[in-house]
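Researcher: Go.
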Amino acid sequence: MSAKILVLENDKDILEIITLILSDNGIDVLPTSHDNLFKDLFGYQPQLLILDHMQTAEKRDLAIFQEIHSHSNFNSLPIILISASFHIDEFAKSCKATAYISKPFDIDYFKNTVTKVLVAVA
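Model: Structure:
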C-alpha cells in the first residue's frame, strides 16, 4: 500500500517500531515533533496523521485537533490517536479522531487499524 503518514510520537522506541511496521508495508513515514507539525503537514501532505496522546497534555492535543480540522487543507485529514491513557476512547470521541490505538498495542491490530483508515480515505 502506497501512502504517506506523518507520525508524532514522543517515545523514540515506539516511533522506531511504528516506522518499521509501516515501512515494511510500503508506507512512507515522516516522524515529526510538536514544533514542526504544521510545517510538516503542509510540506509532506500526508494521507494520515498518527498522534501520540498524553493524558497530561489533553488541552494541547485538543488544540492540535481543532487547528487541523479548522484548516481547509486538512479538515478531512484522518487522525489516529495512540495512547497509554485509560480514557483514550473518550478523548478520541471528544476530539473526533478517526480511530485510536491503546498502548501497548498489538502489531497486527495496529497494521489493521492503519490499513482500514487508509482504505476509507482512498
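Model: The CA atoms of residues 22 and 29 lie 7 Å apart.
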